[in-house]
Structures are given as structure tokens and as C-alpha cells.
Amino acid sequence: MQTAEPTPSSAGCGAADRAGFWIKAIKAGALAIMVTALAACSATTRPDPEHYQRVRQQVLDAHAAGLSDAAPVEMRFVQQKLAAAELAMQHGDHRQAETLLKDIEVELETARLRARVNRLNRALEAAKRRNAQAEQQLNELQEALHE
Asked: How many Cα atoms are found within 13 Å in the side-chain-facing hemisphere of 5?
């Protein structure tokens, strides 16, 4: 009579062996995923040179349009971030450069809005002055009628 050799499934420790196998497989898979994620995170892609040129041109146009006078604080941020983006590109930190270029676009929009608010505030103040003058003239005319 032939006796069957014990198999991992029929042996008492077979379940533990299978669990150990699956734990090792999961650990190997997790390690592969982490390595892949780390490689993807560390990959540096160059920012689009056209993006840099567009942003740089937008900055020059903003200066030419007088935004440096209308929104000096915002434009100072723009200049600082443009210099930092250029430096980041020179040092190969392309992710930082791209982030700064996007920040510059936001700062430029903020500067444009600030300039518009300032322009509207000046127009409002001028309208208030005209209104005050008109009220004064109206009061003078009413007083003259009552005399």
C-alpha cells in the first residue's frame, strides 16, 4: 500500500506556509508600487519653454501697461517670483520653476484686479466730489430762492 506524501494543503502547517507566501507577495508588490511612485515623484520634466516665454511676456506687458504703478506690491511679488523661477530653471528644479510660473500668472491677475479696483475707487471718489459740489450748489440755489 502506497502512502501519500503530505502536501502543504494537507499538512498542519500548510495554511501558515500559504499565508507566508501571500504576505511575501504583498510586501513585494507594495515595494514595487512604492519604488514606482518614488520614481514618478522624483522625475523632473522640463517646464514648457513656451510657457516661460509667455509668462515673461505677460510680465513685460504688465509693466508697459503701468501695473507697476497701479499695483506695486503685487508686481514686486511677480518680479521676485520670476527671478526665482529663472534661478530654479538654471538649477534644474523644473517642478519648482513650473510652480512659480503658475504663481506668477495668478499674481499678474491679482495685480490686474488690484489696478482695476484702484481705478474704480478713484472714479468713485471723483463722483463723490462732483456729487458734493452739486449738493452744495443746490443748497445755495435753495437758499437764494428763500431769500
From this structure: 2
